[in-house]
Amino acid sequence: MKKDMSAASPRKTGCPVAFSLDVLGDRWSLLIVRDMLVGGASTYGDFMCGGEGIATNILANRLKGLTDAGIVEKHRDETNRRKYRYTLTQKGCELVPIVLSLMNWGAKYDPETRATPEILKKVTAKLDMEFSK
Amino acid sequence: MKKDMSAASPRKTGCPVAFSLDVLGDRWSLLIVRDMLVGGASTYGDFMCGGEGIATNILANRLKGLTDAGIVEKHRDETNRRKYRYTLTQKGCELVPIVLSLMNWGAKYDPETRATPEILKKVTAKLDMEFSK
DNA sequence: CACATAACTTGCTGTTTGCAAGTAATTAGG
DNA sequence: CCTAATTACTTGCAAACAGCAAGTTATGTG
């Protein structure tokens, strides 16, 4: 049995940027958060169909990492007990500024972006509305 | 000869968040940017002594990735021609909001953070001053 | 010219990723 | 209630990547 803690071994230098990257510094974790924030995704199947084609074992691993980090919570769907619902905690909702800053930078510098200024505005407004408590 | 393009294979879904993460979604690239923004690092040796203990081959690889992405530029130091200076481009300076949002989230949720509110304020002010053009 | 400095490169080993296939729990249909 | 479908994973394996140590190249110093 191996540990499979791909969420990163803590470097603990006390730097807050490094701390964040220890949790979020990979190619998938923040895309999962994005799907929850923008796409309304909440089940394993939602994330699998999220567009970017994440592998199923990686998804399971990242969901575990995000859960362990206190960013998402896992609950059984009581109306369909085959499903589990993943929801953002307060700590997870506070990732909105990170996702938005990544979105804005990407929109500016991706030559093939599909994100028009209107879409950016709409998404920003939506996230500011729904996730600021 | 292998390619060693660890900067990530583009998924090109048109999502700006995914685009940003293709370039920046690893455990080191943004720490290098952080060292340039906050720590005034500019040479290979500066980054090696940056605190987190990056491996030399990884550093070389990430500097190449950041250069290829147009985020940093490499120039020979004319006063000491053994050195190369890495500097942020405009595109790189515009990563400030991303680094700041990671910093703020990390400062809030790292139980062992060394970042006091005063430090956060000072760094934020500094970056807003120096890198907003 | 010998030695030091700065910036890498190479080789090796262990870990992580990504793909394909398989399993477990729950529910819907006959 | 038995069977099939749905949902959420787990496992196995080859290839890519990370991290460590050692070696190399280019430049500067005495």
Care to describe what's here?
- Two copies of one chain form a homodimer.
- With 133 residues, the first copy, chain A, is mainly alpha-helical.
- Chain A has helices spanning 16-24, 29-37, 44-48, 56-68, 90-93, 96-109, 117-130; strands at residues 72-76, 84-88.
- In chain A, strands 1-2 form a two-stranded antiparallel sheet.
- The first copy, chain A, starts with 15 loop residues before the first helix and ends with a helix.
- In chain A, a hairpin with a 7-residue loop joins strand 1 and strand 2 (84-88).
- The first copy, chain A, is globular, with a radius of gyration of 16 Å.
- Chain A is 51% helix and 8% strand.
- At the A-B interface, helix 1, helix 2 and helix 6 of A face helix 1, helix 2 and helix 6 of B.
- Chain B binds a DNA duplex (30 and 30 nucleotides) through helix 3 and helix 4.
Any descriptors?
homodimer, 133 residues, mainly alpha, Arc Repressor Mutant, subunit A, two-stranded antiparallel ribbon, 2 strands, 51% helix, globular, DNA-binding
| Order of neighbouring strands in the sheet with most strands of chain A | 1-2
What is the third-level CATH name, the topology of chain A? Arc Repressor Mutant, subunit A
Interface with most residues: A-B, 47 and 46 residues
Strands of chain A, count: 2
Secondary-structure map:
The structure is a homodimer of 133-residue chains.
Chain A (H helix, E strand, L loop, with lengths): L15 H9 L4 H9 L6 H5 L7 H13 L3 E5 L7 E5 L1 H4 L2 H14 L7 H14 L3
Antiparallel strand pairs in A: 1-2
Helix pairs in contact in A: 6-7
Chain B binds a DNA duplex (30 and 30 nucleotides) through helix 3 and helix 4.
